[in-house]
Structures are given as structure tokens and as C-alpha cells.
């Protein structure tokens, strides 16, 4: 490329940066102006906050666009020229003529998909390489005017692509906006409606495509998606840290990234699950088991009557009364904890009538005995005919007393308890009888597998979270506000005495059922338990009285403070009727409302704190790992079914994971459009030499899969080294040191069986103290030691796989895990084994690590490791 071309492009790029700087100055100035305003009215505060958020988002996009602002140019047959970049920039003085078009616009699409066979009117495509704000290189694709057959191996922007592929890894995924290929672009721009499944082998760019699709959809449908957000579900926290910079680098911030477990606030997976138990807990039938467990907790008295011994009297609760109350509650369609209000109301009403009739009988009997004892024998057969001596106020007071009575509350808790998801699931696991009743479709052996006793500190349902609720609701009940009699009511309203119809004073039988508290199984929760807790929460519903009580206390405190302010203002002028006082214009309640704090949390913060939040679009990465129960959990977060699902069923390692997209998604598309499926077939990560070894493992898996085609061949044969068991640790440490010497830049990963993670990490750390390991591993470290599951979705320059026999034996899907491990490397692969090498790894060179391995290229290096047919190139044209 000639110097004149670079000079010309530099002038244009510099002008774009001048425009960007001007936009930054104007936006910063506007933000300062907005933040200087102190608004008192709620609507004005909302508008101020919205304006400041808009300015902040614009500044974030400007910052994200700073690096690589302009990366391409299109020259069309008619002389039109378009510059393509990370954001749109327009000329305000020329009717907003586009100076730079955003890569997500339809006008930019030819940059990614034009070929010699389908030029789309493009004469030349130019890739512009910059470093900071300086143009450092140009590469042109000049398309022939003659039509030719398309090539399956044709790549877009080959020099820039191979420079990226050959660069050393940093532990963070970068965006691919400058090197998106045609098959990737088609998926990125696909319609947002419905479920899109992207099946692709290792290194095909599934994750990058999914993230760039999220950015594209946010750009194209911003008004809809910015309010509800986009959810990205990843397989593990290390993966989420690996990808966390991609969307911000594209200027998108309204995205929530989470593992499946993190979608359920408050509970944390504390230990790994046994494979057989993980498979069992992942089955969809567990949803039916939980539903049955909930119904089993809606009980009836064992006999015809239930005796309730209060301090003042003996109450007889008839079974028929409970049958009617339970039917009423169930037929309401409310969830368990809300339906309990109806059950309690009906039972309390029956007990109140019983007590009222008792009062009447006692009073009339006493009067008759006093007037004419012989008349009592005549009166007894007729009874008292429903005679009541209590008026409505008396009955309301009686209902309150019954609700507060410990014996009555204990009976109600036994018949229809308020349950937290944790309590339901933990107590289901802990009681073999409950399991047998709720899960007849499971075998006795499967029920024994599910059985787990309660943790010693989790046997008492009256846990810390429950006591905190009681304190909150009791405090609220003691501080009535205007128009409030102190009852922290339910959604069912109040009866004539002003107390809640269902659970009354809030300090009793309606103790909150919320996520994150209550009993737990011995050993704590596992990742396989979290979808079951979420399912339980859907069946139970949440009792929000604690939150409402806290909100009431906060408001009453604000009103009291506001009243104090008004009193101080009015004190000195209250004797002069000619002076208008503050209290003539506003009362304490309205003054308090004006100063109510706005919710300034981001969408991500609000969404992760709210289990019921629904998203406008959901991306699921490594989706093959999700169990049927996990899919139910994810689908609840996206009722519109606008989803991008990416994965590879050949890499399924979780025993509860899927081997068929059609089967696992069928329950969610039976009444709507079928999922669309796209395939990614080109492997950009794994060199051909390594992929050949991985393909031998792939050939042993079912269902059969076609390996992706690698675009690079580096000439480095993957190797194996046999050592004795005693030698494994020391040899591994020496091998790591040797491989680090060969890596002038980049990262090395040691992938080991889960059962040997601690042992082999210690061996490597003895040689390299800075080694990182486990789910909290810092991926920027030069060496990481990971289990195979923790390496899913990641890539490293050099990979050492240790003890493949143990990897194969640790899981029913051990071969899938080995396939994952072998395909993580971007440059070189070695395998250390203690026994005979598995037959599927025969292709590995038995000579051990090579004496000399060419170093990885630094990130700024340009060039290519191999070539493939593409459009003709002409320098300087």
C-alpha cells in the first residue's frame, strides 16, 4: 500500500476523531448541566435522571469507539464511498451526511459479506488498521467484474483475521467487529423473533457471534431492549469474566451476564454434585415432584376433628371445614403462599363462629338456669339456632385474637404452612415418606439418591430470616400511619375491623416465604439444586409483607421528618394570619413523597436482585450443558422466546445436559414457531494439526458430528509423554516451565481431571508460584490449572492435558470432556499420561514436547500463518 494512500486515510480518520472529540465535549457539558439541577417533583427528578443516564450511555459508547473507531471502507461501482466503524458519525453541516456508518447498520453489511461471486455492487473493500489514532496499515480486496463461483474457503479480511488468530491470548476475549465473517454476519443479523439455535464446533466463534448479535439487537431494537435488558447466560463465573469486556467495547452496557445459578438470588451452590444425582435432579419430572410436594403440604386433619387447646377454651376444627377451605384456596388459582390467605380466612371465620356460638350458648344457658332451671332441658334439643350475641366489631376483634393465638397459629401452620423454596426442597429431601408421596414416578433407588438430611443449623424453620421478618412486621404494626390501622395486610384487603383478612397482624402465620433463607440440606446446595429452588418459588409465590412493612416504616419516618421540618418553618409565624405558611401549600405526606429516593440502580443490578425479572432477549452460551430443569428456569426469564442459543452437543459434559436441540426445546415451541437452527463450520481457533487429534475423539461420540474445518496449519504436531504415576507431578512442573520458556507471550493452561485438581495444582505451583486455579482463576496469569468443566468456552495459547484416562473415567461423558480439553489450544498441545494412551489419541506424536516451538505473535503483529483463496488483492489500488 502506497504512502499516499495511508496519508489520505490518516487525514480522514483524524477528521473522524475530531468529530468524536467534539461529541464528547458536548455530551460532557450537557451531563454537567443536567446534574447541576436539583429537582423536587418526582416527574422532574425522573426526567433529570433519564437525561443523565442517556448522557452517560453516550459517553460510554464514545469511549468504547475510541480504539479502532474506523476500520473499513467500501468503494462501490457508482463511485459511492462508505467508511465503516464502531459507531455512526454524521456531518451536522451537510444535512447529517454519514461520515462513518455503524457496523450494525444495513449499509455496512456488504463489508462483511461481499465476495467476488456476490459483490453487492462493491468494487473494493479496504481494511484499515489503526493503533490508537494512527493508521498503521491498509489491505484491499479488489473484486473482479467477472462473476465467478463462490468458494467455501473464502475469508473476509484475511490479513486482519490471521493477525488476530496468531496473536497471543491475554485472558480476555476481544470483539471481532473488524473481522466478522460472512457466515457469522448472517447469524448476527438474523431476526430477533423466536428461538435461534447456533450449533458450532470448537473455535467456530459461537460466543463472539452471540455477543455481537446481542450488540446488534440492542442497536436495532434499542427502545424495546434497553428497558428490559438482554441476559447472557454463561457456564461458569470464569467464562463470564473472560467475556466481560466484549459488549462494553461495543458500547453496550444494558446487558446482564450470569450463570444459571446466579439467576436465583440469595442461594449459592456450595459444593459439586455427584454425576448420577445431577442427572436425576435435572430431569423435567422433578417439576411434577415439586408440585406434588406443595399439594402434600396443604393438609387435612387426620380425624374428623382437630382439637385446638387455647388458653381460654377448647376449639374443635372439623375436617369438613378444612376440606371446604382447602378447595376454596386451591380453586382460586393463587400460588400456595397467596392461596393460604383464603384458607386461613375460612378457618378463622369458622372458629370465630364456633366461639361466638359458644358465647351465646353460655350466656343463654346461664340466664335460663337463673330464671327457670327446668326450662334448660326443653331448650337443649333445639339448640341456639345460630344465635349470636356479638356484633360485627366484636367478631372482628375475635378474629384478631384467634389469629394471634399461638395454638391456632400452630394448627394453621401444620395444615397450610407458609413455605420458602428452601424449606420445601430441603424438607422434601430430608423425609423419605414425603419423597415417596411426592415422587411415585421415581424408583426407590432414585428416591434414596435424593435423600439428604437437613443441615444441623437448618432444622428449625424459625431461622434468622424468619425472625427478621417478625421484627419488621411487628415494628410496622406498632406504627400506624394515616388511614392505616397498623395491619400489614395481604393482597386480599381488610375486613371490617381493618385487620388483614388472611394473616392479620403480620406477626404470625404469614411469615414470609422468600428466596435466600430457611433450612438447607446437609452439605449445602449444589448447582443442580438451584433450578429446583426456582421451580419451587414459582409454585409457592412470595410473601412480600416484610418488604411492604419495611417500606411502610421508611415512609412513616419520612413523613415524621417532613412534619418536623414544617413545624420548624411555621413556628415563628403561626400567630400572624396574614402570612402564608408552608403548611398552607403542602402537608407532610406530600413533602415526604417529593424527597423519596429514586431507584438509581442499573438494569443489571435490578434484574439480578429480582427473581421474576423478564428480559427482552436472552443469550445462552454453552447451552448444551443445561438440564431440563435449568431450561425451565431460563425460559421463565424470557416469555417472548426471543433467544439466541449457542452450543455444541458434541461438547456436552454435564450428565443432565442435552444431546438434541429439538428434544430439549420442544416443550417451549409446541404452540409457536419452531426454533431456527444455524451452523458454524469454520474453526478459527484450533490449528489443523490439533483438530485432527480432537476429531478422532469426536468420531467416537454419539450422535455423530462433523468436525469444523480449521483455517490454520502451524506445522506444530501435538505430542504425548508417558510418565509413571510417581513422576507425574515433577515432570508436569518441569514441562510447564519448559513451555513457558517457549511462550514469549500468551497463556498456558493445564487441564486436569476434577479429582486431581488440588494435587496437580500444588505440583505446578511449586514451579510457578503465580499459577491460578479453580473457578476464581485470574485468566491473565501466565499459567492456570483448571478442571475440564472450568475450561469450557475458554482458549489458551498452549494446553497441557493431564491423565486422559482419568478424564474418560470420571464422567459418563468423559469422552466429551476430553474433546473439549483437546480443542482449547490456539498454538500447541501436549498430553501427559501414566498408562497406555487411549486408542483415540494414537495420532499424538510420542516424541514428547518439541525442542523448539515458534513463539506466539504479539497482539500488534500483522500477517498470516496460512492462506486460503479469497478475492484478489492489489496493493496501492
Low-confidence parts, pLDDT < 50 over ≥5 residues? 458-515, 858-877
Number of strands: 22
- Could you estimate the helical fraction of the residues in percent? 40-55%
> What's the story with the biggest beta sheet?
6 strands, mixed
Number of domains: 4
Average predicted confidence as pLDDT: 84
Put simply, the count of helices is 31
N-to-C span? 8 Å
Radius of gyration: 34 Å
Strand order in the largest sheet: 3-4-2-1-5-6
Question: How would you sum up the global shape?
Answer: globular
Strand content: 5-15%
Class from secondary-structure proportions: alpha/beta
Present the secondary structure layout.
Blueprint: H1 3-36, H2 42-65, E1 70-76, E2 81-85, E3 89-91, E4 97-102, H3 110-113, E5 122-131, E6 134-142, H4 158-166, H5 182-188, E7 195-200, H6 206-220, H7 222-228, E8 230-234, H8 237-243, H9 246-249, E9 255-259, H10 275-281, H11 285-296, E10 305-309, E11 314-318, H12 319-331, H13 336-371, H14 375-379, H15 392-404, H16 406-415, H17 421-430, H18 432-438, H19 444-450, H20 464-477, H21 530-540, H22 545-571, H23 588-594, H24 603-609, E12 617-620, H25 628-636, E13 643-647, H26 661-669, E14 676-680, E15 682-683, H27 688-698, E16 709-710, E17 719-722, H28 728-742, E18 748-752, H29 757-767, E19 772-773, E20 783-787, E21 796-802, H30 804-810, H31 814-822, E22 825-833
Parallel strand pairs: 2-4, 7-13, 7-14, 8-9, 8-12, 12-13, 15-16, 17-22, 18-20, 18-21, 19-20, 21-22
Antiparallel strand pairs: 1-2, 1-5, 3-4, 5-6, 10-11
Amino acid at each position: 500500500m502506497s504512502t499516499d494512500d495511508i496519508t489520505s486515510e490518516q487525514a480522514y480518520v483524524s477528521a473522524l476523531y475530531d468529530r468524536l472529540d467534539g461529541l464528547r465535549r458536548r455530551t460532557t457539558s450537557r451531563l454537567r448541566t443536567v446534574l447541576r439541577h436539583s429537582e423536587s417533583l418526582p416527574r422532574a427528578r425522573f426526567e433529570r435522571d433519564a437525561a443523565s443516564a442517556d448522557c452517560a450511555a453516550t459517553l460510554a459508547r464514545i469511549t468504547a469507539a475510541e480504539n479502532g473507531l474506523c476500520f473499513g471502507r467500501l468503494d462501490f461501482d457508482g463511485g459511492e464511498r462508505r467508511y465503516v466503524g464502531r459507531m455512526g458519525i454524521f456531518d451536522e453541516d451537510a444535512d447529517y451526511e454519514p461520515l462513518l456508518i455503524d457496523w450494525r447498520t444495513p449499509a455496512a453489511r456488504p463489508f462483511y459479506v461481499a465476495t467476488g461471486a456476490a459483490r453487492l455492487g462493491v468494487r473494493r473493500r479496504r481494511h484499515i488498521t489503526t493503533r490508537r489514532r494512527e493508521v498503521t496499515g491498509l489491505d484491499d480486496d479488489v473484486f473482479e467484474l467477472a462473476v465467478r463461483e463462490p468458494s467455501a474457503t473464502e475469508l473476509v479480511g484475511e490479513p486482519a483475521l490471521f493477525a488476530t488468530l496468531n496473536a497471543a491470548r491475554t485472558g480476555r476475549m476481544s470483539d471481532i467487529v473488524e473481522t466478522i465473517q460472512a457466515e457469522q454476519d448472517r447469524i448476527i443479523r438474523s431476526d430477533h423473533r423466536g428461538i435461534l439455535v447456533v450449533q458450532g464446533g470448537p473455535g467456530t466463534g459461537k460466543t463472539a457471534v452471540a455477543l455481537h448479535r446481542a450488540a446488534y439487537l440492542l442497536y436495532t431494537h434499542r427502545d424495546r431492549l434497553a428497558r428490559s435488558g438482554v441476559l447472557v447466560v454463561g457456564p461458569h463465573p470464569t467464562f463470564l469474566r473472560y467475556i466481560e469486556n466484549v459488549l462494553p467495547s461495543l458500547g453496550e452496557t444494558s446487558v446482564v451476564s450470569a450463570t444459571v445459578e446466579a439467576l436465583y438470588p440469595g442461594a449459592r451452590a456450595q459444593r459439586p454434585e455427584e454425576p448420577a444425582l445431577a442427572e436425576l435432579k435435572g430431569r423435567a419430572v422433578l417439576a411434577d415432584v415439586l408440585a406434588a410436594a406443595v399439594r402434600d403440604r396443604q393438609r387435612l386433619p387426620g380425624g374428623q376433628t382437630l382439637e385446638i387447646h387455647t388458653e381460654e377454651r377448647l376449639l374443635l376444627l372439623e375436617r369438613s371445614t378444612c376440606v371446604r377451605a382447602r378447595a376454596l384456596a386451591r380453586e382460586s388459582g393463587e400460588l400456595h403462599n397467596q392461596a393460604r390467605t383464603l384458607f386461613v380466612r375460612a378457618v378463622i371465620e369458622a372458629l370465630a363462629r364456633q366461639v361466638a356460638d359458644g358465647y351465646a350458648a353460655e350466656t343463654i344457658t346461664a340466664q335460663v338456669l337463673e330464671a327457670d332451671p327446668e326450662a334448660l332441658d326443653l331448650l337443649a334439643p333445639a339448640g341456639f339456632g345460630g344465635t349470636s350475641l356479638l356484633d360485627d366489631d366484636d367478631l372482628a376483634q375475635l378474629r384478631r385474637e384467634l389469629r394471634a393465638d399461638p395454638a391456632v397459629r400452630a394448627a394453621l401452620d401444620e395444615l397450610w404452612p407458609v413455605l420458602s423454596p428452601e424449606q420445601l426442597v430441603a424438607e422434601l429431601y430430608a423425609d423419605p415418606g414425603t419423597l415417596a408421596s411426592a415422587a411415585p414416578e421415581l424408583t426407590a433407588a432414585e428416591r434414596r439418591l435424593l435423600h439428604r438430611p437437613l443441615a444441623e443449623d437448618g432444622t428449625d424453620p424459625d431461622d434468622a430470616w424468619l425472625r427478621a421478618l417478625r421484627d419488621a412486621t411487628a415494628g410496622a404494626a406498632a406504627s400506624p400511619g394515616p388511614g392505616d390501622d397498623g395491619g400489614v395486610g395481604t393482597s386480599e384487603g381488610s375486613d371490617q375491623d381493618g385487620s388483614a383478612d388472611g394473616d392479620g397482624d403480620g406477626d404470625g402465620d404469614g411469615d414470609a416465604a422468600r428466596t435466600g433463607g430457611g433450612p438447607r440440606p446437609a452439605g449445602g446446595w449444589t448447582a443442580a439444586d438451584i433450578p429446583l429452588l426456582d421451580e419451587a418459588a414459582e409454585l409457592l409465590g412470595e410473601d412480600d409483607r416484610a418488604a411492604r412493612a419495611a417500606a411502610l416504616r421508611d415512609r412513616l419516618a419520612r413523613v415524621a421528618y417532613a412534619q418536623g421540618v414544617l413545624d420548624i418553618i411555621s413556628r415563628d409565624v403561626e400567630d400572624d394570619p396574614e402570612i402564608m405558611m408552608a403548611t398552607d401549600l403542602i402537608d407532610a405526606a406530600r413533602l415526604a413523597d417529593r424527597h423519596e429516593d429514586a431507584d438509581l440502580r442499573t438494569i443489571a443490578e435490578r434484574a439480578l436482585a429480582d427473581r421474576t425479572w423478564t428480559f427482552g432477549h436472552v443469550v445462552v452460551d454453552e447451552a448444551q450443558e443445561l438440564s431440563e430443569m435449568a431450561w425451565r428456569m431460563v425460559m421463565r426469564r424470557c416469555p417472548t422466546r426471543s433467544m439466541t442459543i449457542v452450543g455444541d452437543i458434541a461438547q456436552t459434559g454435564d450428565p443432565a445436559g442435552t444431546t438434541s436441540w429439538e428434544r430439549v426445546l420442544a416443550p417451549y415451541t409446541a404452540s409457536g414457531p419452531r426454533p431456527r437452527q444455524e451452523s458454524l463450520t469454520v474453526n478459527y481457533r484450533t490449528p489443523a494439526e490439533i483438530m485432527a487429534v480432537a476429531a478422532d475423539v469426536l468420531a467416537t461420540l454419539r450422535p455423530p458430528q462433523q468436525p469444523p474445518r480449521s483455517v490454520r496449519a502451524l506445522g506444530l504436531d501435538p505430542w504425548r509423554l508417558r510418565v509413571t504415576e510417581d513422576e507425574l507431578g515433577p515432570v508436569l512442573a518441569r514441562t510447564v516451565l519448559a513451555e513457558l520458556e517457549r511462550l514469549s507471550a500468551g497463556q498456558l493452561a493445564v487441564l486436569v481431571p476434577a479429582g486431581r485438581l488440588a494435587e496437580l495444582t500444588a505440583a505446578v505451583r511449586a514451579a510457578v508460584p503465580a499459577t491460578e486455579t479453580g473457578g476464581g482463576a485470574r485468566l491473565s496469569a501466565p499459567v492456570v490449572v483448571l478442571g475440564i468443566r472450568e475450561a469450557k468456552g475458554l482458549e489458551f495459547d498452549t494446553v497441557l492435558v493431564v491423565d486422559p484416562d482419568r478424564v474418560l473415567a470420571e464422567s459418563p461423558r468423559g469422552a466429551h470432556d476430553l474433546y473439549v480439553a483437546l480443542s482449547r489450544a490456539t498454538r500447541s498441545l501436549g498430553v501427559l499420561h501414566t498408562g497406555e494412551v487411549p486408542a483415540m489419541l494414537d495420532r499424538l506424536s510420542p516424541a514428547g514436547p518439541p525442542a523448539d516451538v515458534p513463539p506466539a505473535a504479539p497482539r500488534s503483529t500483522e500477517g498470516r500463518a496460512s492462506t486460503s483463496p479469497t478475492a484478489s488483492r492489489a496493493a496501492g489500488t
